[in-house]
Amino acid sequence: MTDSNGINEEYEKIFGVTQRPTLFSNDDIEYNALRQEIINSPTLKISKKNLPFEGIKLVPYEDYCAENTVKSLGGKLAKLFRIKQVENGIVVCNAAGFYNKQVGFVVIQGSYCRQSDFFSQLATNMSDTKDKISFLDSFKIKNGMLQQCIHRNYSSASLAASIFLGRRASFKEWKDIWGRSLDYYYSEYKDSAIEEKEYKMLLSILTSNSDHAVQTELQLNGMDSSKTMCDNGIHYFFIKRGLNSAYTCDAVGCYDLNTNMFVVKAGSILSHEINEQYEYSTSNIVRRTFLKKMCDKDKIGFRLRKDAVFDSPSAAATMVLGRPSNGWKEWRDSNKQTLDTVYRQ
Q1: Phi and psi (nearest 5°) for 301?
Q2: For a Cys staple, 312 with which of 128, 149, 166, 200, CB 3.0–4.6 Å?
Q3: Count helices and strands in the chain by DSSP H and E runs
């Protein structure tokens, strides 16, 4: 085959000339007229400055799925907002949610963040919430991250942002795909920072200056636990497990009926043992942070350096025993009466 001959010509030399069927023959009048009309038709030129889909933002599939979830939960008018944080090429926070005037800010299932001391401190004080599912039970550990396993309402967008970013944050951290925050769509939304009440709750576990804390000095070494009432009229309750029993501890505290707060007194011994299932829970992340910041380790367990305030008797009992606990049944006074018997029956 020569360079000037095509494959068709070479084929025809061997097998003969064949008639190639076409819609029109070359001398067909209609064919030539149609061909000329196509040639004479003006060419549509699309300028790069005037593209057909200009102004339409491409939405990642992840955002598409999240937006569908938001619409199904909050209605067609609900707006999707996200927080995404990347450090050293690794996504350490990826959360999505929407605002609803009736229920507050809703963070949808699957949102995740890294484990942080801030999260642990806040979670400790939210561990006995009145919700059907407690704050800690709303999260599970997956691939080293804390993943929210349900759709959850938060009292403010700033509180939600603070939890997922691991620092005190504003609602302005939540952005839509255009980079606009809540106040762009909801002009009435006022929430410049995490609510002061919630922030005080967060700090209460790190200080003993709470209004509900008992300021009297009390050491467990040599203390006569037969005294149910102290000099200023406070009713004390105890959790005690001997050296030969599981979850060895020796703790004392008191309950504030008006606030539901429970104060575990300085000098209390917290168990160094933990329940096997509890070990892998988000609640234990909180406990490890608490022990590191608030306790000294000794041969028996962890000794509390100063009074610690919890938002419920159950949160306090869980911290003492190292396992999920019902504080209303675990805390007993010197007459072996439970907290439940004294205050709720």
Answers
A1: -175, -140
A2: 128
A3: 11, 14
